Amino acid sequence: MKLTGSQLITALLERQGITTIAGIPGGANLPLYDALQGSSIRHVLARHEQGAGFIAQGIARATGCAAVCLGTSGPGATNLITAIADAKLDSIPLIAITGQVPRNMIGTDAFQEVDTFGLSLPITKHNFLVRSAAELLEVIPRAFRIAVSGRAGPVLVDVPKDVQTELVDVASFPEPGRADPPPLCPVDDLGRAAAMINAAQKPLLLIGAGVIAAGASNDLRNLMEKAALPAAATLLGLGALPYDHPLYLGMVGMHAARFTNMLLDECDLLVGLGVRFDDRATGKAAEFCPHAKILHIDIDPSELGKIKQPSLGLVADVRTALAALAPLVARDSRCRWIHRVNTVRDRYPLMMPGADDPLRPYGIIRAAAALLPEDAIITTDVGQHQMWAAQAYPFTRPRQWLTSGGLGTMGFGLPAAIGAAIACPGRAVACFSGDGSLLMNVQELATAAEEGVEVKIILLNNAQLGMVRQQQQLFYGGRYHASSLGCPDFVAIARGFGVRAIDIGKAENPSAALAEALRQPGPCLINVPIASDENVYPIVPPGRANRDMITADAS
Ligand SMILES: Cc1ncc(C[n+]2csc(CCOP(=O)(O)OP(=O)(O)O)c2C)c(N)n1
User: Among 108, 318, 453, 527, fewest CB within 10 Å belongs to which?
Assistant: First the structure.
């Protein structure tokens, strides 16, 4: 059978099980778009390639499967860069396929030529510049295998236009690219790990994104409940445990509840599960868990000892390791430690002022949570609203919480929500956003309207780059500069894009208006005016130890 490179890409993507792709066409990828038209794959036209990248990320984060975005050469590719870098830092299996100028024009400064391969080298797990249509038979399955194997990550495939049109003889299709089996954890190491847990008086687990990536929530609970092991989570580990699990301590780090950071300061064993000891989680790394031995389990060997030297490091899939550890760990109720944990928790809880007022940060998040179904998917942008949501939203399951952790990319929330809604029809999706962040990919309102997605944008509108303002208040002597945004009319903007919108600040009964807006089908923007001087507490000053957190009463 003779196929063009574009037809081959399309067929290979179908064989990978890809049903939706987000992207934007242009000169250098038009052959691919031509081939896609006749395929089973649904194409979502984003309004900016960064939006396409985050729509694909929303699909990947909500499902755990690789997802695909497309861009043309030059500006199409450079616009994808942020979403690719974001996927790299959060270990998301994203496949970016870019068009490139024809092979004989590479290196000539041709129209819309940019060295996409070179640009993407440091922000991808792997990248390819495809040199012939025949190569695609190997490259496409390999791209998927690399993206999903071990620690997941983004892979870029740059395809010159003449490779897309080149005819190739295809005798048979290769097997779709699947994840390699995870490394086997040495039995001796498992025994030593269990012995460390059994010997600990004050153990704590730290849940990272790796727990969710590995689908390890059930094995985690089994182990915790057998040996009475309390657990905190990083920003990306939220949802691995239900918020109300008695052994769960919530989020660690820069904006953690006081009790959480205090208990980490006290523990004598920290078991890091699929974590990379990010500075937002650890604070000053040298002073993180100062009394603890560290047992670190991660599928990526390069993480072991990168930031914190473990007493024992296991290179393993977290789920496999937790399942293997469970029978080796002694049943224990650790009465003294659990009593201490509960005492500190009761004494230094997360304070949520205004939790009953829907026009205050915690209030709107709690009110929305009470109205949304328990399995609603929550996305955020980056800033104060992200941290308020992380602190206050009652997550019950993995892959319910989609947020840009490592790169902290403003503009993530709306397109990621669109992707999640497309990937999970029937689920409610809410995006908590800030006015600064929403403007970064506001054009995706057009995509939301066109696709009619079940996305509710809850805009915590403080007319500020709030997190910047807060840091200027606390750490720059109140010298505010470039953090005030003015007040665009977001309701009018959303309506201009064809998205329903309300301002609950103008409603007679804000709670009833919120309920009504969430109840109506289709996309909706809910503007929630909040005071510009609301701050997120606690906050650890950048570079300081977590125990030096500032609380609301101390500021
Ligand atoms: C693309 C990008 N640019 C700049 C920043 C730095 N930054 C972090 S938080 C923030 C302010 C966010 O403001 P907003 O979206 O209104 O949210 P708020 O903090 O007010 O809730 C900025 C500018 C960033 N994270 N991402």
Answer: 108
- In a mutational test of the pocket of ligand 1, which residue from 79, 412, 465, 530 has the highest number of ligand atoms less than 8 Å from its CB? 465
What residue type is 103 in one-letter code?
R
Q: CA–CA separation, 255 vs 550, rounded Å?
A: 9
Q: Is the peptide bond before 538 cis (omega within 30 degrees of 0)?
A: yes
Q: What burial class does residue 147 get, using C-beta atoms within 10 Å of its C-beta: 0-12 exposed, 13-18 middle, 19+ buried?
A: buried
The residue from 1, 37, 111, 201 that is catalytic is 111
Distance of CA 274 from the midpoint of ligand 1 (Å): 27
Question: What value does the CA radius of gyration of the chain take, rounded to a whole number of Å?
Answer: 24
Cα-based distances in Å from 21 to 25, 26, 37, 40, 160: 12, 15, 12, 11, 19
**E strands along 91-229, which residues?**
94-100, 126-129, 155-160, 167-169, 203-207
Candidates 49, 135, 166, 451; catalytic one: 49
Residues making up the chain, counted from first to last: 555
Mean pLDDT by 10 residues, the chain (555 residues): 97 98 98 96 98 99 98 98 98 99 98 98 98 98 98 99 98 98 92 98 98 98 98 98 98 97 98 97 96 98 97 97 97 97 98 97 98 98 98 98 98 99 98 98 98 98 98 97 94 98 98 98 98 97 95 76
